[in-house]
Amino acid sequence: MQGNRRRDTKPELAVRRAVHARGMRYRVDVRPLPGFNRRADLVFTRVKVAVFVDGCYWHGCPDHGTTPITNVDYWGPKIQRNRERDADTDQRLQEAGWVSVRIWEHDDVEDAASHIASVVSRASG
Ligand SMILES: [Zn+2]
After folding, report:
1. Between 100 and which of 5, 24, 90, 91 could a Cys-Cys bridge form, CB atoms 3.0 to 4.6 Å apart?
2. What is the CA(62)–ligand 1 centre distance, in A?
3. Rounded to whole angstroms, how far apart are CA atoms 83 and 79?
4. For ligand 1, a single-atom ion, which residues have Cβ within 5 Å?
5. For each of the chain's 125 residues, which pLDDT tens digit applies?
6. Residue 38 to residue 64: CA distance in whole angstroms
7. E-state strands within the chain
């Protein structure tokens, strides 16, 4: 089983393409905060917006992140840890003056890109 932070997953690429198509430029898979070992999928450094494209299963999406049927003792806590880490990441970013945007892999890509565009535009203003 590979780690859950593989690069260039399909939903991530789709979101990146849609955002890029709107003329927005960002950095990919970098740490928003120096010294804080968490990467974001799309990073808008100047306006301090970090976007995470979260997998439904690994990050426990309310629609598809159902409790694993097999190996609950192992995967249940692992997903729980991911969720806690996500919340912790958001908090650290917020404390540093960043805005954290979370996109589910099941989200409509164009809706996601619009949402990111509006957050970035608010952050620029
Ligand atoms: Zn989902």
Report:
1. 90
2. 7
3. 6
4. 56, 61, 63-64, 104, 106
5. 344 555 567 899 999 999 999 999 999 999 999 989 999 999 999 999 999 999 998 898 888 866 655 666 777 888 889 999 999 999 999 999 999 999 999 999 999 999 999 999 999 98
6. 24
7. 27-30, 40-44, 49-54, 99-104
